[in-house]
Design a protein that fits this description.
Number of strands of chain A: 10
Number of helices of chain A: 12
Helix content of chain B: over 70%
Shape of chain A: globular
Shape of chain B: globular
Distance between the termini of chain B: 36 Å
Largest sheet of chain B: none
Distance between the termini of chain A: 36 Å
Number of strands of chain B: 0
Oligomer: heterodimer
Order of helices and strands of chain A: HHEEEHEEHEHHHEHEHEEHHH
Largest sheet of chain A: 6 strands, mixed
Bound molecules: adenosine-5'-triphosphate, magnesium ion
Strand content of chain A: 15-25%
Radius of gyration of chain A: 19 Å
Structural class of chain A: alpha/beta
Largest interface: A-B, 40 and 34 residues
Chain lengths: 288, 249
């Protein structure tokens, strides 16, 4: 997907307004915006002798929301873990903002914002303390105004001193999302960010993701929600048994597969949806 | 393209602050670590008269050190690993060793705190005082002994993933250490066991601690105990670090 001229101006404007602590400068941004922010080539991941990811290749551009869809155990989290540097792939190349993840892991992590699938913060710490911890780790100054701005943004005003462990699942999710983007990362990885959120929070999150896209950030998310994939993702990749079996815009995928017999037999009300395509392509059986 | 990676010192400061707060809020482990040694000290009034102040103090400090490594450190590491706390930190631009270094520094601070608590308790309840050099050497010995039990805790989290299993294992080892250690040293369990305990990780730490309190009593046997303590630490830390996995699965 290439950026339209309006979006380009927006990115430049945005980056000239970036604070000193931003992890990148505005001048170099122009050269990169048509280059993928993430490029995964020939990724293979094994756990012992079990191969979880097979020859996966895809790219995410700045200003694009890319969704990874796939049944349980398809290899989505494993793929993200390799990009994050949490596990070492047996082979393949991962480039983030021009940095090779094997050679410059710290540079890659400085450009990455991550929300993991699991909880991930000490339950004894308060929301404020978690914000301060990660602001320190990413080198982002935290003023009082900035903190109250963040708290308002995630609708947790006045909850600064609540322990993370005392928050509800959805509230924890919102904290973990805001930590993921605390340093304005150029590439954001979200592993099932809307699982467990109420419809209000989900809509809010979509809006936030779209706002990030407008600013030129690249987003890679995994989801089990076809509705989410259709309404926010620019492109999706369908993963099954560790392999990417289809990659395109949601609309194009539906168009391309609407006449497949498996897809037609999966459709429930005569109208072909993305879910029908998904089931048609990945099969009906539930994964072990 | 220019990318700023925060300085390691800034990262360490943030980590330390969070780890200190977490330790402070963990009241149960705090009480277990600080209070149990002092309670033992109080209940040992008779033994102080018979075996001397340094014997009682060194035993109580050792109990505290064992609790730090086994109950405090290993459990918090196992729990945070399960909740992906480490994984979240590791996807930030920091070297992985800073995560563990910060935790260990907090634990070493706990070692000093336990030592102080036992000294204060000893003075307050049993009027035990030792020479100024004795205090200085004791703190050093406590740090060395603390390192041994932290590496023992590291072995447990290195070999066991499940936090519940880590919890029950460390409790069991803690209990065995304290019981066999205390009674073995008192000679209740017979001579052979007494000797074995003397050269066990419990005995060597106790030996260097009690000799540190009275530097004049330091002998070649104490030096051997010190060397054994260091050897235990290196071996256990080696195993514990090599086997350690950051992820919960
Ligand atoms: N640490 C591990 N050790 C062994 N096998 C693993 C490990 N992590 C994942 N797997 C296996 O690898 C496969 C892919 O797992 P992964 O977590 O990437 O799937 P996923 O697509 O994220 O699934 P879900 O939608 O359920 O989150 C699964 O079969 C899983 O059992
Ligand atoms: Mg997953």
């Amino acid at each position: 997907m290439s950026l339209q001229p309006e979006k380009r101006t927006l990115i430049l404007l945005r980056h000239s307004m970036m604070p000193q602590n931003a992890q990148y400068n505005s001048a170099t941004m122009i050269d990169y915006q048509d280059q993928p922010i993430l490029e995964v080539t020939g990724l293979n991941i094994f756990y012992g002798s079990f191969q979880a990811v097979r020859d996966v290749s895809f790219a995410v551009k700045p200003g694009e929301i890319f969704g990874l869809l796939g049944p349980n155990g398809a290899g989505k989290t494993s793929t993200l873990s390799a990009i994050e540097g949490l596990l070492k792939p047996q082979s393949g190349r991962i480039m983030v903002a021009g940095f090779d993840s094997a050679r410059n892991p710290l540079h890659v992590r400085a450009v990455l914002g991550v929300q993991l699938q699991a909880t991930s913060f000490q339950s004894e710490l308060t929301v404020l303390e978690i914000l301060q911890l990660y602001a320190g780790i990413y080198g982002v100054p935290m003023s009082k105004e900035r903190i109250s701005g963040i708290m308002k943004d995630i609708s947790l005003e006045g909850a600064e001193s609540r322990r993370f462990g005392q928050l509800s699942g959805g509230q924890q999710q919102r904290v973990s999302l805001v930590i993921a983007i605390i340093h304005e990362p150029r590439l954001v990885l979200l592993d099932e960010p809307t699982t467990g959120l109420d419809p209000q929070s989900r809509r809010k999150l979509w809006e936030r993701m779209e706002a990030m896209r407008e600013k030129g950030h690249g987003l890679l998310l995994t989801t089990h929600s076809m509705e989410e994939a259709e309404s926010v993702c620019d492109r999706i990749g369908i993963v099954d048994h560790g392999r990417i079996i289809a990659i395109d815009t949601p609309q194009a995928l539906i168009e391309k597969h609407r006449d497949d017999p498996e897809v037609i037999s999966a459709s429930r009300r005569g109208k072909i949806t993305l879910e029908d395509v998904f089931i048609g392509l990945t099969g009906r059986s539930i994964r072990s | 393209m220019q990318i700023t990676i925060p300085a390691t010192s800034t990262v360490m400061k943030s980590l330390l602050r969070a780890d200190l707060i977490t330790q402070w809020r963990n009241r149960r482990s705090l009480i277990l670590i600080l209070l149990v040694p002092v309670i033992v000290l109080i209940s040992w009034k008779g033994i102080v008269d018979k075996m001397g102040g340094p014997f009682a103090l060194s035993n109580c400090i050792t109990i505290g050190l064992v609790a730090i490594g086994l109950m405090g450190y290993s459990n918090s590491v196992a729990r945070d690993r399960e909740k992906a706390v480490f994984q979240r930190l590791r996807v930030a631009p920091l070297p992985s060793w800073t995560i563990m270094a910060s935790r260990l520094i907090v634990q070493l601070a706990m070692v000093l705190l336990v030592t102080i608590a036992v000294f204060v308790g000893g003075y307050y309840f049993d009027k035990i005082t030792i020479s100024p050099t004795g205090y200085v050497f004791s703190f050093l010995a406590a740090l060395i002994g603390g390192a041994l039990y932290l590496s023992l805790g590291q072995v447990i989290v290195g070999l066991i993933r499940n936090p519940e299993t880590v919890n029950s294992t460390s409790r069991l080892v803690y209990f065995v250490f304290i019981m066999v250690g205390m009674f073995g040293e008192l000679g209740v369990l017979g001579k052979e066991i007494g000797t074995a305990v003397h050269w066990s990780p419990y005995g060597t730490v106790k030996t260097i601690l009690s000799a540190s309190m009275e530097p004049a009593t330091w002998t070649s046997t104490t030096t051997w105990a010190l060397l054994m303590t260091i050897l235990y630490t290196i071996v256990l830390a080696g195993i514990g670090i090599r086997k350690f996995q950051w992820n919960a699965r």
